[in-house]
Design goal:
This protein is α/β, with parallel strands linked by helices. It has twelve helices and twelve strands. The strands form three sheets. It has a seven-stranded parallel beta sheet, with helices on both faces. Helix 4 links the parallel strand 4 and strand 5. 44% of the residues are buried.
C-alpha cells in the first residue's frame, strides 16, 4: 500500500521553534514521503532534499503556489508563523486543500483558542480552526504553549551579558506552562501518521510547568552563576521587542500573553499527549537548558593571535 504524501509547511524552519523542520525530519526518518513547502531555496532546503524530501518553493499568501504544493497530497501540516496574515493563509490553504482532496490537516495553534481569548493571535487561531473544519479536510489541532525556545530568545542576550532576565512576568511566583518545540513536532508527526484522527480533535501540549523562581533556579544550577529577574513595565518590554526587530503582530500577541499569564489563576498540568502521540516522555526545561547552555553563557571576544 502506497504511503500518504505529507505536505509540511514551514519546512526549512524559522528562527525559534522550527516545528516544520522537526516534523519533516521525523517523518522522513520513518520513511514517510514529505513534500517540504519552503519560502526560499537555500542550504536548509538543500539539506531536506538530501534527506529525501520533495522540496517546493512558495508563499503562504500566494494562492497558486499553495495550490501547486497540495497537488497529489493527502495530508498537510500547517504551521503559520506568529505574524500578520494567518486568516488569509488559512483560507488559501483550506480552499486549495479541499479542491485537492486532502483528507487530514493538522495545524499548530495556541494552547488557548476562543473568541474571547486574551491575545489577538489566539482569537485569530479560533477563526482559523473554524475555517479548516468548515472546509472538510479532516482538520485537527495541536495546541502548544510557550516554547522553551521562546525563553531562549527572550533571555539569552541579557543572561549572557549580566545574568539578568528582563520580562513583564510579575512576581517570581508566576507560573509558566512550557514545552519543547521538538515535543510539539512529535505530537504533530504522530497525528499526521496515526491510523485515524477524529476531525475537530485537539491535542494540548505542555511539557513542563514552572514558577519563574524555578526557572531562575534551573539556570543557576546548570550555568553555575547568579541569575536575577527584573520585572519591567509592559510598555518598556513592548518597545524593546519592536526595537529588536520582532514583528508588531508577535509583539502584540506576546504582550497580551504576558499580561494574561501573570494574572491568571488557571492551574496547568503536563499533558500526556507527548508520550501518547509522540512516543516519548516530555523533555523537561532543565534538559533543554543543559542542551542549550552555551546560548546563555557570556561570549568571550576573540583575540588576534
Amino acid at each position: 500500500m502506497m504511503k500518504r504524501v505529507v505536505l509540511v509547511t514551514g519546512a526549512s524552519g524559522g528562527q525559534q521553534g522550527k516545528t516544520g523542520r522537526h516534523v519533516s525530519e521525523m517523518l522522513l526518518a520513518r520513511g514517510v514521503p514529505v513534500r517540504a513547502f519552503v519560502h526560499r531555496i537555500d542550504e536548509r532546503s538543500d539539506q531536506l532534499c538530501a534527506l529525501g524530501a520533495d522540496v517546493v518553493e512558495g508563499d503562504f499568501l500566494d494562492y497558486h503556489s499553495v495550490e501547486r504544493a497540495v497537488q497529489g497530497v493527502s495530508t498537510v501540516y500547517f504551521a503559520y508563523p506568529v505574524q500578520a496574515g494567518l486568516l488569509e493563509a488559512t483560507a488559501i490553504m483550506a480552499d486549495a486543500a479541499r479542491k485537492a482532496g486532502v483528507t487530514r490537516l493538522i495545524d499548530m495553534v495556541m494552547l488557548v483558542s476562543s473568541p474571547d481569548a486574551p491575545t489577538p493571535r489566539m482569537r485569530e487561531n479560533y477563526l482559523s480552526e473554524q475555517i479548516f473544519e468548515w472546509a472538510g479536510v479532516g482538520a485537527a489541532h495541536v495546541r502548544a504553549t510557550v516554547f522553551y525556545e521562546n525563553m531562549r530568545a527572550l533571555s539569552a542576550a541579557t543572561m549572557a551579558r549580566d545574568g539578568s532576565i528582563l520580562l513583564p512576568w510579575g512576581s517570581e511566583s508566576t507560573v509558566i506552562p512550557l514545552v519543547s518545540a521538538e515535543d510539539v513536532a512529535r505530537v504533530a508527526a504522530g497525528a499526521l501518521t496515526s491510523p485515524s484522527v477524529t476531525p475537530g480533535s485537539s491535542y494540548p501540549v505542555i511539557g513542563d510547568v514552572l514558577a519563574l523562581r524555578d526557572i531562575i533556579a534551573t539556570f543557576e544550577r546548570i550555568l553555575g552563576r547568579d541569575v536575577h529577574y527584573k520585572e519591567i513595565p509592559d510598555k518598556a518590554w513592548h518597545d524593546a521587542a519592536l526595537a529588536r526587530g520582532i514583528n508588531e503582530h508577535a509583539v502584540e500577541h506576546l504582550s497580551r500573553l504576558w499580561q494574561s499569564i501573570r494574572t491568571s489563576s488557571r492551574q496547568y498540568e503536563v499533558t500526556d499527549t507527548i508520550e501518547k502521540l509522540g512516543g516519548k516522555k516530555p523533555k523537561t526545561f532543565e534538559e533543554f537548558v543543559r542542551e542549550q547552555q552555551g546560548a546563555f553563557k557570556p561570549q568571550l571576544a576573540s583575540t588576534a593571535a
